Every structure is written in C-alpha cells, then in structure tokens.
Amino acid sequence: MTTPEERRRSITELVTKHGGLSVEELATRLDVSESTIRRDLRDLAKRNLVERTHGGVVPTTNVGIERSFNRRLIQNLERKQAIADRAVEEIAEGHVVYFDAGTTTMQVAKAAPDDDSIIAVTSSPMLVLELSKSDGTVKMTGGEYRNETKALIGPTTEDYIGNSNFDLAFIGVNGIGADGTLSAPNESEAKIKQLVVEHSARTVVVTVAEKFGEQSFRRFGSVEDIDLLVTDARVPEGYRDLFDETELVEGVFESGAYG
What we know:
Layout: H1 4-18, E1 21-22, H2 23-30, H3 34-46, E2 50-53, E3 56-59, H4 69-74, H5 77-87, E4 96-99, H6 103-111, E5 119-122, H7 125-131, E6 137-140, E7 144-146, E8 151-153, H8 155-162, E9 168-171, E10 175-176, E11 181-184, H9 187-198, E12 203-207, E13 218-222, E14 228-231, E15 247-249
Parallel strand pairs: 4-5, 4-9, 5-6, 9-12, 12-14, 14-15
Antiparallel strand pairs: 1-3, 2-3, 7-8, 10-11, 11-13
Helix pairs in contact: 2-3, 5-6, 6-7, 8-9
C-alpha cells in the first residue's frame, strides 16, 4: 500500500511533469479520493513544494528562483511543440534567424527547416545540437556558459548580437506582466534578449500561456516591442488589450487551430 509520503512525492512529480493538474486529475491518476488529494496539497503547499490554484495545483515558483532546465524541459512538452509548429511558419527562405536559449525555443529549433534555406544563430549549445541536424549554416554567439539555462552570456555574447542583424528572432520569456512587461530571471540573459529584439526585423515571442501574470527578476522589454506572440491557450481577458498593435496567435494547442 502506498504511504501518504510516497503519494505526495508522486503528486509533486506529476505536477512538475505536466506543469499543473486539477484535483480531479490527480485523484484519478493516483486512484484516491479528491478529499485525500486536497489534504496532500495543503501539506505540500505548506512545505513550498507546490502552489495551490483554483481547483488544482502548479509547480512552485519564485521571482528570485529559476526552475532547473531539465525540469522545465519536460513541462508542457506537447504544448511547446504545438507552439513551435505554428512559430516556424514565420521562417522564410534566406532568413537569418536567431533562436533564443530556452525549452520552448528548443522545440522551435527542432521544428525549423532541415534544409539549407536559413542561417541559424543561437546562444545555446543545446540548440546548436538540434539546429546542426539540418543542412543549413549554424552560428553560435560565443560567451560564458551559464549552467542554469544552458546558455552563453556575457560581453562576448552581447558584442556578437550587437553587431548582427536578424531577419527573424524567436524569444522565450519567463514572465508577462499585466502592463505588458517581459521579464527574465537573470540580468545577463535579460540584456541579451533586449539586444536581440533591437537587432531583429521581426521578433516572435513563444511561450505557454501560464507565463501571463508571472513576474521574473529583470525586465527586458514590453509586448509592444515585439511583432508576434504565439501561445498554447487563450490569453487571459485582462491581457487582451496589450495586443492592439502586436499580433497574437493563441490556442494553438487547446483548439488545434490558430486564433
């Protein structure tokens, strides 16, 4: 028989893997009552292992703490793949395309054309491995390796981007504020994102919808600074006015169609 602690460990693992689950889903998966799940969630929330939401639970977050790359890599994977499938429609032959470091942009890199039609640039050694599977040219910015995000940062990276021009850039984001501000958890990575936006003819933010309402440490721009945002679910009503000038494609996972 499963002990309460084993069950709570399973809850934490499931919530981390799926990026959030309802009480009903957890009860079904673990074959226990919803009241048992609610008791478990109260205990886990007190220990700061999960965060309660209306009717469910999500992985714990903190403005000053980054989730590990490997943990984020498996979260919302199918949703990120759906975002990527739509995002790569923005790529045209002959484009110089920048791929930001991140787990959603990794899926964009995997979905990118596998011929020699583009020049790909990235600050992520992990994305280089994906992009180099194609026949196209792949360039890496250089810089200091940051293990938390598996990305290159620092003056060398900033200098490379500052002296480049991109036709298209795919950018990840850690938080989208109610005022449209875009944020990242690290000063150096925020600076790199800001430079990429400034040096790109067209900037596309790719993000799961749960990033709306989240806030990270450093701001690097605003929704109005980008050209397109692609996300998996419908954007919360309070944020829709942010997209008067910026193009929005939403619901690519939930509806199977582009909104």
